[in-house]
Specification:
This protein is of the alpha/beta class. It is 42% helix and 17% strand. The strands form two sheets. It has a seven-stranded parallel beta sheet, with helices on both faces. Strands 3-4 form a two-stranded antiparallel sheet. Strand 3 and strand 4 form a beta hairpin. The radius of gyration is 18 Å and the shape is globular.
């Protein structure tokens, strides 16, 4: 299917590993122009299956003025269409009430940083909405099924992701119809270097038993399972009526409707 993404300029925040990296690869296959935003230090150009993204921008997710400056700079090269925000972490201690630094870390990465990126994107793009009579941009967040069902995940991770899903719904109303705002909620996704990879290597949990007991599909998801839908949501040709949705991609793990 032609998603009409050729030459469309899309930001992927958190596009250097796991789900984000696969999202970049699939966008490039569709002919999109991709700029990666990251807080990681980059020492060389990173290629994605023989193709290169437009640029990898080291930025600061906590500083609104820096985010807007960096977005303005890449927007001047090619006008932006949307942003996919794939940052997040559930790595924490096992305490019910984490200490203050840990709470701040989990809320920053899983709620405040995605919020700041979305806010900066709107501030930069709204300035030329009227000029070019452009009708639609998109923002796609990445949450977790931990936001809506008990997984024994870190408390602040689950609660921060729940807040992100509520933010999705609020923005979908308040920014419509010029912006479509949606959210993807992955279940258990396995990739090298990810949380489940580390758990597997630790040998502390029988992963196949967990999957057999908790996941109807009886397997882990893969980055492509999430990335494919993120690319779908990037296309106004096939997803223009998606707005305010939060879609579970979890092999059937969540039990509520």
């Amino acid at each position: 299917m032609d998603l009409d993404l050729k030459n469309k300029h899309i930001i992927v925040a958190g596009g250097l590993g796991g789900i984000g990296k696969k999202t970049v690869e699939l966008l490039l296959e569709e002919g999109a122009k991709v700029t990666i935003f990251t807080q990681s230090k980059i020492n060389k150009e990173i290629n994605f299956e023989s193709k290169s993204c437009l640029e990898i921008v080291e930025t600061d997710y906590s500083k609104q003025e820096i985010l807007e400056y960096d977005l303005e700079k890449v927007n001047k090269k090619i006008k932006l269409e949307g942003v996919i925000i794939m940052i997040g972490t559930g790595r924490s201690n096992d305490e019910i009430f984490s200490n203050e630094p840990e709470v701040r870390k989990l809320w920053n990465i899983n709620y405040y940083f995605p919020r700041e990126i979305a806010k900066a994107f709107v501030n930069v793009t709204k300035s030329f909405v009227e000029e070019e009579k452009k009708q639609e941009f998109f923002i796609t967040f990445c949450s977790s099924i931990a936001a809506k069902t008990f997984l024994n995940a870190p408390t602040e991770y689950s609660v921060a992701k729940a807040a992100l899903e509520k933010l999705t719904k609020e923005l979908s109303w308040k920014l419509a119809p010029l912006y479509r705002v949606n959210c993807i909620s992955p279940g258990n996704i396995f990739f090298e270097g990810g949380t489940w990879d580390k758990i597997r290597k630790s040998g502390k949990l029988n992963l196949q038993k967990m999957l057999n007991d908790k996941v109807p599909a009886k397997r882990f998801g893969e980055p492509i399972d999430i990335a494919s839908f993120a690319v779908f949501l990037s296309s106004s040709k096939v997803s223009s009526f998606f707005n305010g949705s939060c879609i579970n991609i979890d092999g059937g793990q969540t039990t509520s409707l």
